[in-house]
Amino acid sequence: MDNTAQMEHSGADHHHNPNLAHHFHDMEQQHESIKLGVWLFLVTEVLLFGGLFCFYAIYRAWHPEMFIEVNQLLNVKLGALNTLVLIFSSVTVALSIRSIQMDNKKHAVMFLGITIVCAAMFLVVKYFEYSHKIHEGLLPGKYFVNPEINAVNPHIFFSIYFGMTGLHALHILGGMTFLTWVMYRTHIGTYSSSYYTPVEMGGLYWHLVDLIWIYLFPLLYLIG
Amino acid sequence: MYSDSEKNFITHPKGIMSWLFTLDHKRIGIMYLIAILTAFAAGGFFALSLRLELFRPGEQFLTQDQYNKFFTLHGAIMVFLFIIPSIPAALGNFLLPLMLGAKDVAFPRLNLASWYVYVLGASFTLFSVFTGTVDTGWTFYSPYSTQTSTSVISMTLGVFILGFSSIFTGLNFIVTVHKMRAPGMTWYQMPLFVWGTYATAMIQVLATPVLGITLLLLILEKVGGIGIFDPKMGGDPVLFQHFFWFYSHPAVYIMILPGMAIISELIAVHSHKKIFGYRLIAYSSVAIALLGFFVWGHHMFVSGQSEFSSMVFSFITFFIGIPTGIKIFNWMTTLVKGHICLTTPMLYALAFLICFTIGGLTGVFLGALGLDIQLHDTYFVVAHFHYVMMGGTVIAFLGGIHHWWPKIFGKMYSELWGRIAFVFIFVGFNMTFFNQFMLGSQGMPRRYHDYSSFLKTDLFERYHGFSSYGALILGVGFIIILCYLVASLFNGKPAGNNPWGGLTFEWSTTSPPPTENFKKDPVLKHGPYDYDKVLPKDIEEN
Amino acid sequence: MNERTFNLPPPASTIAGAYDELFYFIYGLSVFFFVIITVGTIVFAIKWRAKKGEEQKLTSGFCHNTPLELLWSIIPTVLFFVIFIWGFKLYLRYVVIPANATEIKVTAWQWNWNFAYPEGAESNILVVPKGKPIKLIMSSNDVIHSLFIPDFRVKMDVLPNRYSSMWFQSDYEGEYDLYCTEYCGQQHSKMVTRVHVKSASDYTKWIEENSVTPTGDVLYKRYACNTCHTLDGSAGNGPTFKNLFGKSETLTDGSMVNVDENYLRESILEPQAKIVSGFEGSVMPTFQNTINNDKLDALILFIKSLKEE
Ligand code: HEA
Ligand code: HEA
Ligand code: CUA
Ligand SMILES: [Cu+2]
């Protein structure tokens, strides 16, 4: 966090990298700044989901029986499948960073491609889960119409379920978009071992999205 | 206003497009300044309408519905559109890179984006004015907010969007402070304005997302009936209050910390004196920011939360008074052995010490468990928060505007008119709000359109009437300020680099500064307040 | 009773004295610190003011003084502990409700109060015997309200999904204001009523007078029907009662309904079931839990009587 290092660098670094913005002294300062920025962004994401996790915790504490009863209606197999898909995609995104660090453009593009395909698979599985729920009338709040369940306030569980997984799915979509852009830029040769900040940041973001799911899965599917 | 030969960030480059697409933090700061002042004028219009309605008991010229909508708009505009972005986004944007000796903030594009997001959010908020407005109060408490047919969705969506603008600014500032300091500048050589803005940015980044998710759920509750807040569906309305205040209490420190940040600069510069207890002032900003996260329940002492939580929240609330007190005593002691010039900015700084202290001390009444029972939701609370927000932040903001005006525009305003306006503001403000303490502790509830059916109507009428006169004086004060500041742009004397004799980097460049801030990259040679070692006229020009 | 003071209304409940002591203690402290800070600021600012036209010069480097700094950190800390403990003790007196308290059931809705007494009477104003602890058990039919009696120094929110309670005891006969202090919509500022503290014998007399089932016109006001339904034929937030009985009304879904006893009964108990077209926006609270059969009959009789032949 100290800037004595960057003091020594400035001045020496005068062969201008085209990716260096005018207001930074050198690439290192730029890279460090972007990294800190992205970490802070991830913090805000954690807090955004943190709010929802609090709602989850509170309602679970208030209605423990209802949560356990209603949670049986979720499809653990599909949830587990999705967990595996996401963990795998976290590995491939990490591999793409490694490849670009070693100037292996082809592999980097390939691994990013696999990551994006995994993300798409995740969404397809979610689509099947959602449409099944909709079919059964297991919907949030006032749209909940399933007559068979006799727990107290089961609609609240589904409000929370759809709120959390829905917001998470939006993040998957966002991540996919960003990674696609990064893949294209890698393909046209913007990044190399000397500058690959966006690839790294895309990877960081993807790990977070993955991590959130790793919490969501047991909390929603595996209780009881 | 400026001749073409002067090359500075205002004149160069030219054209409206060069402003709308600018990445220059100084221009973005000015665009923010214009936006928030517009919001302030709108909020002030509603405030004066409220005061005129309350001037006498009985319905004056607003119906109940209109009154309810007006105080909601007044509160929401003042809080979300004016005071939260005011100092950080306008002055902070302009000054932070200059004070750090940097060319710009870390992410100029994000900075511009934050302005557009602000405008978008403001549009949604104002859109609700044309679709029936909102009548919930700025706190949007459920279940009333989910039941009313007014356009709560558009307003809360606006506030949700405004949150992103606040997060962008905060994130940008944290990175800028960490990574963009001039060579040689350690953490303890940063001006205290930077410390204050840094602590503010921490709250902005950590608290705003929670407000975001809460408002999102409120919107979903209203359109989709998700049942989380609605008691009819097994939800809990008090939960909404917890989440709302989890953001909105820290948010009051988003409002005051930048004000305190300004005061540190004003007092040191205008008394030409090394600031007393630099480190304690810096640490106390951070301490206030962190402690502020754990006291939200003091807004809910009578709302049905458990007695145990009330006790804990009350206890932690008092701890915020300690760092705040330290700051106030440090500023006061800074004056000792100084070389004090009672310029307009300095008058505002001294007024801050007096008014903010009243606001803070009355916060202690509210924080004491038993005492809040009588005072909650009365005019005592209204007076408390106007003393801290108006008497604290707005007064500091006015001081800051006067202090950096010559730097921003290169022109001096009329010192005489400045002092005249100051008297109007100071007298008008205290007239408006001091008697509201008595009004409140005597029992006058807030958000009341009319008090004619009370047993104590004549007592309340006296206080309310006085308060309304005060608000008019206050209004005149603001109009005077507006006039002479605009006039100074056309016929003000050139300010020179360093009209007040400051030692921080922003005074070492020309006024207005050039596009890239400095002619050469500045290097730190002395501390920000070394008035015992360096004469301002000797500082090196950058 | 004590005199009215500058800051607080005359104390009219047993808790008010303890309340006022803490209030004035903090008041004194505040004045003390305020004077120190204001006087300090002004005196220093004048004493070390720069002379007119004087050149800027180097000033003293005075920026530390450990004893002073300790002083203004430790003294407030100690005082804050005192205030906290004192405030907490006062709070305990509020939350610990005497076991022998008379229980009065309070129901709040937009925009009125209903007080139900153990002896069976009901009213819009709160009537209590002097010198006896009173416990209010409160709930709301719609949004959050809050019951505030400034002269007694008591306040508590009234919530829709649970019961909240508070207590007080007044030793002074008289009439006091009672306000709703949680913003609850359009007529929040009209949700004002009175508390009457009566001697034991007056109280018993009052209860007796009010125990009979009131007639429909009294209920019409007590349940605040009058805030939305007029008697003169003009439309308020809801349809007027004048000539309502026997009329055919068009509902929001286009169907027609004949206003008879059953329709009126349903509209009072389940207001949202059938809404007359033109009144889509207004939300009437349910009276399901507030009203019993006798009173329902009385109200319907009253509406019937408003039909002109
Ligand atoms: C800029 C904004 C700002 C600031 C800085 C503060 C500062 C404080 N506030 Fe305030 N507050 C608001 C804005 C702010 N507040 C708003 C907007 C509301 C109402 C919202 C609504 O309902 O609409 C509110 C409401 C509010 C309540 C809820 C009241 C109610 O609704 O019932 C409480 C209760 O504890 C409270 C307490 C405090 C305290 C203890 C401080 C402390 O930080 C103050 C610390 C300062 C001092 C204590 C003075 C200096 C210290 C000394 C000189 C040391 C010695 C002093 C002693 C030993 C006493 N505030
Ligand atoms: C930053 C916050 C802020 C500020 C500055 C103010 C400023 C003022 N406020 Fe308000 N106020 C709130 C935040 C603020 N307020 C909030 C949050 C509430 C609670 C709302 C709720 O209950 O939901 C509230 C509620 C509130 C009430 C209580 C309403 C009620 O409960 O029924 C009242 C009543 O007197 C009031 C009055 C005033 C007055 C007279 C001013 C004056 O100080 C205003 C002075 C300003 C002007 C007169 C504008 C003049 C400007 C110009 C003439 C143009 C100049 C233009 C340029 C410089 C470009 N405010
Ligand atoms: Cu009921 Cu306000
Ligand atoms: Cu607070």
What is the element string of chain A, with H for helices and E for strands?
HHHHHHH
Secondary-structure content class of chain A: mainly alpha
In CATH terms, what is the fold-level topology of chain B? Cytochrome C Oxidase, Chain A
Number of extended strands of chain A: 0
Share of residues in helices of chain A: over 70%
Which architecture of chain A does the CATH hierarchy give at level 2? Up-down Bundle
Largest sheet of chain A: none
The interface involving the most residues is between:
B-C, 96 and 90 residues
Low-confidence stretches of chain A: 1-14
Question: What is Rg of chain B?
Answer: 23 Å
Overall, the morphology of chain A is elongated
What percent of the residues of chain B sit in helical stretches (DSSP H or I)? 55-70%
Mean pLDDT metric of chain B:
91
What is the class of chain B in the CATH system?
Mainly Alpha
Using only C-alpha atoms, the radius of gyration of chain A works out to 22 Å
What is the arithmetic mean of pLDDT of chain A?
83
Distance between the termini of chain B: 25 Å
Number of helices of chain B: 15
- CATH superfamily grouping of chain A: Cytochrome c oxidase, subunit III, four-helix bundle
Number of domains of chain A: 1
3D structure, described in words:
The complex is a heterotrimer of chains A (224), B (542) and C (309). By secondary structure, chain A is mainly alpha-helical. Chain A has helices spanning 4-9, 27-62, 64-71, 76-101, 105-136, 154-187, 197-221. The model of chain A is unreliable at 1-14 (pLDDT under 50). Chain B has 542 residues and is mainly α. Helices cover 66% and strands 0% of the residues of chain B. In chain C, helix 1 (16-47) runs antiparallel to helix 2 and helix 4 (216-222) packs across helix 6. At the A-B interface, helix 2 and helix 6 of A face helix 6 and helix 7 of B.
